[in-house]
Amino acid sequence: MSRDQDRVQRFHSGGPWETEVGYSRAIRVGDRVLVSGTTAARGDEPIPEDVGEQARLALGTIERALEQAGSELRDVIRSRVFVVDLPTNGPAVLEAYGAALRGARPTISTLGIVALVDPRLKVEIEVEAIVGAGAVYEG
Predict the structure, then answer these.
(1) What string of DSSP letters covers 72-135?
(2) pLDDT tens per residue, range 16-28
(3) Residue 111: closest CA among 85, 83, 91, 90
(4) Helix (H, G, I), strand (E, B), or coil: what is residue 11?
(5) What is the b/e burial string over 69-83, where b = at least 16 CB atoms within 10 angstroms of the residue's CB?
(6) CA nearest 91: which of 34, 139, 50?
């Protein structure tokens, strides 16, 4: 096994498409953690219509993935938020986002998109974190 393979750790949340598509919820390389685009999809559980609730569920999945990788929300340094019908859904999504990540103050890109893989889904969020970065944040 090469040095790079020793350093790469993959984490799975059991999401409905992880096995089917063939991706990891999160990957940790050294102190860097990358979390895939995450939605409110949770297996056979219903997807809520409320976009703010969809964002909260996605952020909860992200938080658990970070914890699996030895990190936490306050370590997030970069985020991307994809929102279907941004003018309508953006405010509720960003309210949920702010409640979860305000303390970390990561960079953010918010993009309005046409659709996600399931038409019931209205938001997808991905993040990057550096383990321990939150410990040095002062603000």
Answers:
(1) -GGGEEEEEEEEETHHHHHHHHHHHHHHHHTTT--EEEEEEES--SSTT--EEEEEEEETTHHH
(2) 676 677 777 899 9
(3) 83
(4) strand
(5) bebbbbbbbebebbb
(6) 50
> Can you give the pTM of this predicted structure?
0.89
Structure tokens at 6: 């020793």
Residue 109, Cβ density class (10 Å: 0-12 exposed, 13-18 middle, ≥19 buried): exposed
The alpha carbon dihedral of 112, 87, 66, 78 has a sign of: positive
Give pLDDT tens digits for 31-54. Answer: 999 999 999 988 788 999 999 999
How do residues 83-110 score in pLDDT, each as one tens digit? Answer: 999 999 999 999 999 999 998 999 999 9
- Please say whether the beta carbons of 125 and 59 come within 8 A: yes
